[in-house]
């Protein structure tokens, strides 16, 4: 889940997006896709396009209730950070807040925004990553320590606590 945080004319914004993935390594680019278009944007989309900056915070099991609370439909000037009970802190490289409690946050500069049907695929180049030492081993992200949460459909979610490894063929 891309828990996107941004800043716009009405203030700070925080919202979850289940359409989320990494799309490139060099340069590092990720995407999330709000079900909205640039002609009728939601706050995060409007802010990302206008300011060309946003943060993607990774949702973990300990933050799932706060993430869900941030999906409430609030007036643009009401803080989803406050509503969800999480702390907004300034990003280091982009003009957007990030979730202090998130174990992993990616600061992004807008790479592109492409309308696809009734959605907009927002591509962000990662310019800085915050990774909590609690989810690292020898200075690298340890996927066995990061209990990320994904959205399946509707009210159904999945955690990443049932992992397995398989060797790729040469």
What does this structure look like?
- With 170 residues, this protein is mainly β.
- The protein is 12% helix and 44% strand.
- The chain contains 3 helices and 13 strands.
- The longest helix is centred in the N-terminal third of the chain and has 9 residues, at 43-51.
- The radius of gyration is 16 Å and the shape is globular.
Keywords for this entry:
170 residues, mainly beta, 7-stranded antiparallel beta sheet, two-stranded antiparallel sheet, 3 helices
* Computed CA radius of gyration, to the nearest angstrom: 16 Å
How many individual helices? 3
* Strand neighbour order, sheet with most strands: 2-1-5-8-9-4-3
What share of the residues lie within helices? 10-25%
Oligomer: single chain
Q: What is the SS-derived class?
A: mainly beta
Low-confidence stretches: none
Q: What order do the SSEs take from the amino end to the carboxyl end, as H and E?
A: EEEEHEHHEEEEEEEE
DSSP strand count: 13
Q: Report the span from N to C terminus.
A: 32 Å
Shape: globular
How many strands, which pairing sense, and closed or not: the largest β-sheet? 7 strands, antiparallel
